[in-house]
């Protein structure tokens, strides 16, 4: 979020963000926080749907498809519809999944587990929807993993965790590193128009981080 509280038709409110009001920017980040592509959300006349989420992802990664890459998305983007679109482009998807996302199997959503138990359902085209019980239920989608587990260090010792979750936790830090580096020395000032704020953020924020 690029903070802005003035009048703007596509100003967004996102609860939980440090700056709740402002211009929403979608980013595609690589390892180390490098920003590969970005897109400013300019608003829609219709409510946000799966089609909007899918179009955002396809826009950000359009020029690097067809190469067998792996993309990690949070539960706002992840869906079986997006997974099938990427599969057609020889691209893989891994991400957490919302319970109410369309086409998510109801039997896996409603399943009750004890801690450590896992249920995996896989389609004929290799898309796996998994539910794993840790401290709470974790629902996620993977096009590369089934039920493989790996041991990780825990404050109480060694602990087994699903390999898909380990990979996702590692990759989701890419965007966090980018935002963290940008926050150390913010170039945003209060008394400028929204378009100048966006321009300053892109020129002096994003470009400097990428150069580093």
Which percent range describes the beta-strand content?
25-35%
**Sequence of strands across the biggest β-sheet:** 6-7-10-9-8
Oligomer: single chain
Count of DSSP E strands? Answer: 12
What does this structure look like?
It holds the Pfam family DDE_Tnp_1_7. Residues 1-211 form the PiggyBac transposable element-derived protein domain. By secondary structure, the protein is of the alpha+beta class. The chain has a domain at 75-171. It has helices at 50-60, 80-87, 106-109, 163-171, 173-184, 194-211, and strands spanning 2-3, 12-13, 21-23, 25-29, 35-40, 70-73, 92-96, 118-122, 128-133, 137-142, 149-154, 157-162. Strands 6-7-10-9-8 form a five-stranded mixed β-sheet, with helices on both faces. The longest helix is centred in the last third of the chain and has 18 residues, at 194-211. The chain is globular, with a radius of gyration of 19 Å. 19% of the residues are buried.
């Amino acid at each position: 979020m690029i903070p802005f509280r003035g009048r703007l038709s596509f100003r967004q409110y996102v609860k939980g963000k440090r700056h709740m009001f402002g211009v929403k920017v979608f980013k595609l980040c690589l390892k180390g926080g490098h920003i590969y592509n970005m897109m400013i959300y300019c608003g829609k006349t219709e409510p946000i749907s799966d089609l909007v989420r899918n179009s955002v992802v396809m826009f950000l990664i359009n020029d690097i498809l067809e190469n067998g890459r792996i993309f990690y998305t949070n539960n706002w983007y992840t869906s079986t519809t997006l997974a099938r679109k990427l599969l057609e482009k020889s691209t893989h998807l891994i991400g957490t999944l919302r319970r109410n996302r369309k086409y998510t199997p109801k039997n896996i959503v409603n399943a009750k587990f004890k801690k450590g138990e896992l249920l995996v359902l896989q389609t004929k085209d290799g898309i796996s929807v998994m539910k794993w019980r840790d401290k709470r239920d974790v629902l996620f989608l993977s096009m590369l993993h089934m039920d493989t587990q790996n041991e990780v260090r825990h404050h109480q010792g060694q602990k087994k965790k699903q390999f898909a979750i380990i990979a996702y936790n590692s990759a989701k830090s890419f965007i966090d590193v980018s935002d963290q580096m940008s926050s150390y020395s913010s170039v945003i000032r209060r008394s400028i128009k929204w378009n100048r704020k966006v321009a300053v953020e892109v020129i002096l924020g994003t470009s400097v981080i990428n150069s580093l």
